[in-house]
DNA sequence: TTCGTATGCAAGTACTTACTTGCATTATAA
DNA sequence: TTATAATGCAAGTAAGTACTTGCATACGAA
């Protein structure tokens, strides 16, 4: 009973809230509109969530759980640094673009809802983040990644590039002078070249030359 | 007459609006609060700006003008790629941190106010951006920056790293595993190493070794 | 001094918002 | 069938919101 009826309504409300918060922002979102999108009466919303604020934190909870789940299944490393990071970049960028509007809302609301911001930044990306750090650390031991680089910072720099690119791209319909693909490819290229040992950079350029 | 009296009040209103928009977001900001912060009557606000929306666009206008001005005076290139980019990074990062709250507001509002977003992204950074592209292009001719890199994308990637870092840092009071300084230094290091020719990377490492 | 302009103040308008109450209806489980 | 729980519906409350109007006051320029 807790399943079918109640849970369905609750999930519809959560989905609708996510959508309306993304479109209108936290302040701009109204419980009336959320209920309308969910296809339920506004009163029902308040029977499920005691306030708009609590609805927001439920949305955050569900979103972080979903994203952590979605990003957790990244296990296949080819041990080719460039390929692996490109794969990671594509995955991460797709996630950013899919949830662009909601991410914007949360960035804007971060100071007013620091706990929500913390959860979104950490709980969603932490597992994958740790894996990447371990991966780079191993690459360091293999002599592919150079010494003396703060790997924790490096990983966040990598994702920061992608986030920054998404924010610029989607903010305005103005030509940036490069394509979205070029931004991604250049991000991977610069990062890999920058973090590699000279030896492995030389090997890469040689391989490129032989093609 | 257009100067002293009216202009002073207008500027106080613009400053107050900037502050309140930054703190409360566009939707959360009330004309009553803006007037209070400015120290004028709410009616006076509407005598200067016909609507809250127009006040917002005036704030955007003033902000872009100020920032473009502040960032325009970057002329001294030492021709050492690393030093120059570090200098640029510090300048840009200081600007990001100073206006963190307002930047968050605008990022969150970008879809609802695309024209404002466009102006902030473009008009504030365009001049410096072009200068950096020219600079990197010259470095390319000098053999310091390698060929085959999309320089326009590269410049935005560089600023994207810094923006991403600021957004992560200030969103939450949680330890990231590295310091703000390390993030900046690693950003510069990775970018410079990544965009340099192998030759100039070798020279740099040699110089480091001799210290 | 006089005149025009900028501002303050009190009140009001029309609308929206989060949230509540009471009761009727439906569906489900025992 | 009957009791229980979830939902819909109509209405309402209390507070806030952007924005307006009318009038009084102060101040600077001519």
Jot down its keywords.
homodimer; 0% strand; DNA-binding
- The count of β-strands of chain A is 0
Give the rounded overall mean pLDDT of chain A: 93
- Helix count of chain A equals 10
Shape of chain A: elongated
| Radius of gyration of chain A over all CA atoms, rounded | 21 Å
Q: Which structural class do the helices and strands of chain A define?
A: mainly alpha
- One letter per element, helices H and strands E, the order of chain A comes to HHHHHHHHHH
Main pleated sheet of chain A: none
Q: Low-confidence runs of chain A (pLDDT<50, min 5 residues)?
A: none
- Percent helix of chain A: over 70%
Q: What is the quaternary state of this protein? A: homodimer
- Whole-Å distance between the termini of chain A? 63 Å
Beta fraction of the residues of chain A?
Answer: under 5%
User: Using CB atoms under 8 Å apart, which protein chain pair has the greatest interface?
Assistant: A-B, 60 and 60 residues
């Amino acid at each position: 009973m807790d399943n079918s009826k109640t849970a369905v309504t609750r999930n519809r409300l959560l989905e609708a809230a996510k959508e309306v918060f993304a479109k209108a922002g936290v302040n701009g979102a109204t419980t009336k509109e959320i209920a309308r999108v969910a296809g339920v009466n506004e009163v029902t919303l308040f029977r499920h969530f005691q306030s708009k604020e609590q609805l927001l934190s439920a949305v955050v909870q569900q979103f972080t759980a979903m994203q952590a789940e979605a990003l957790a299944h990244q296990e296949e490393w080819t041990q080719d640094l460039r390929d692996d990071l490109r794969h990671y970049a594509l995955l991460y960028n797709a996630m950013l673009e899919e949830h662009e509007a909601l991410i914007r809302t949360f960035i804007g609301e971060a100071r007013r809802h620091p706990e929500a911001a913390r959860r979104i930044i950490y709980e969603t990306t932490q597992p994958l983040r740790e894996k990447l750090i371990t991966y780079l650390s191993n690459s360091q031991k293999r002599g592919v990644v150079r010494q003396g680089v703060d790997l924790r910072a490096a990983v966040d720099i990598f994702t920061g590039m992608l986030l920054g690119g998404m924010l610029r791209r989607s903010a305005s319909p103005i030509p940036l002078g490069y394509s979205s693909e070029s931004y991604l490819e250049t991000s991977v290229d610069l990062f890999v070249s920058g973090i590699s040992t000279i030896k492995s950079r030389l090997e890469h350029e040689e391989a490129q030359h032989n093609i």
